[in-house]
Amino acid sequence: MSDTVPVKETIEAAHQLVAPFIHRTPIATSRFLNDLTGAELFFKCENLQKIGAFKARGGLNAILTLPEDKLKNGVATHSSGNHAQAIAFAAAKVGVKAYIVMPENSPSVKISAVQDYGAEVTFCENTPEARQEAVDAIVARTGATFIHPFNNYQVIAGQATASKELIEDAGTQLDVIMAPVGGGGLLSGTALTAHYFSPETKVYAGEPEGAADAVLSFRSDKIEKAPYINTIADGLLTYLGDKTFPIIKSQVTDILTVSDEEIITAMRYLWERMKLVVEPSGAVSLAAVLKNREQFAGQKVGIIISGGNVDLGKLPF
Prior knowledge:
The chain is of the alpha/beta class. Helix content is 46%, strand content 15%.
């Protein structure tokens, strides 16, 4: 285990470690969306990943790099859904108990999936403070090892493998990679991957206006909380961590915000035009490119579709 920012070799090792357990997800293209944006888009389809989201990568790397003595009492985390599934999935793979704290209003599809992997779920109020308090109590009671959803270098190194594959499989030099940002695990991993494996590629983030903490942090140079939380993108509600923020600040070009209406439009395009089941958080990257199409016109843009765990009974269209 390393308690330092992942270097090139750390990301390569993480990729080798998680590769037997994950899908090397496809890269999809759309002539319609290329025409609409004026850019050449390459979609990394992590909605087709094991557990339906990129977070399988970070969860697996975090658990597979834990020494045996840290695994014997199980693992614990808090998450609104995708990281919860990742830890439950990874724990099941290595045969250890998983204790998961989930907000009481988490999408039912995500709760069911976590329980199906055999994890013990505890519900809490949907605030970062309530989540942490609940998981601290579980750790104190069980001796389980806490794995933070994003503020953990092993998780970051695992998430970095998605953009590593994107860079390797796009078949062309990418000018830009666009990732969504919540706590910053995927974004910081993406930024490190671009820095080490494709230094000419700029990294941008898309963020919901209704959870706009990362853009404030990026501008003020310190970790900020969003002024209000109100967005359909339930996977992006948390704020940056002290491990993710410095990486993002030093390696990311800019953070672009999008409205829920713009997220729903992008989500609908992905469903209707590309036949991809994508959750709102997973459509934020495309929404940011659509909103800022003049900025990206004429460029080759990698877009990470982060997940597809959407409650089919509650589609926004």
